[in-house]
């Protein structure tokens, strides 16, 4: 697995940071443009992803205001020692369809343009796995667009394998 080419830290998002919230919103919109099926428009996916990200940030803000630690999800931020934000991973707890047991689910992972392939994604993946283990979860799942070869290669390097292939036909 790639070692980061820059010294970085992975830590939970600071909900009171405008820059970190903006990073999540900007990168989550970009993540929809990578290899999605033709029947989804970029605009539709970007809109839906933004809605999801805004709802996530609102949940985290409510937890922070109530001085609670979110137990079911976390946004992890990758940053350099100088404070440059390089990416994020959003991981939550869900129920595995087959085992009916709680598992971690990587909702989204994205890095800033120009930092792809430099180990930031690998560092975020390692932190995501550590979070899931700390929650007592025995597995980590994710969804990825079939044509998103860069992400699929990252996930494969981290031990992920295909479990099912979801197919769809628009009617």
Keywords, separated by commas or semicolons:
alpha+beta; Aminopeptidase; five-stranded mixed beta sheet; 4 helices; 5 strands
Overall radius of gyration = 16 Å
Spatial order of the strands forming the largest sheet? 1-2-3-4-5
Assign the CATH topology: Aminopeptidase
Number of strands: 5
Distance between the termini: 42 Å
Structural account:
This protein is α+β, with helices and mostly antiparallel strands and 171 residues long. The protein has one domain (8-157): Aminopeptidase (3-Layer(aba) Sandwich), CATH 3.40.630. The chain is built from four helices and five strands, in the order βααβββαβα. α1 packs antiparallel against α2.
Compact summary:
36% of the residues lie in helices and 22% in strands.
Give the topology, please.
Elements: E1 8-12, H1 18-31, H2 42-65, E2 73-80, E3 85-95, E4 102-111, H3 120-134, E5 140-142, H4 149-157
Parallel strand pairs: 4-5
Antiparallel strand pairs: 1-2, 2-3, 3-4
Helix pairs in contact: 1-2
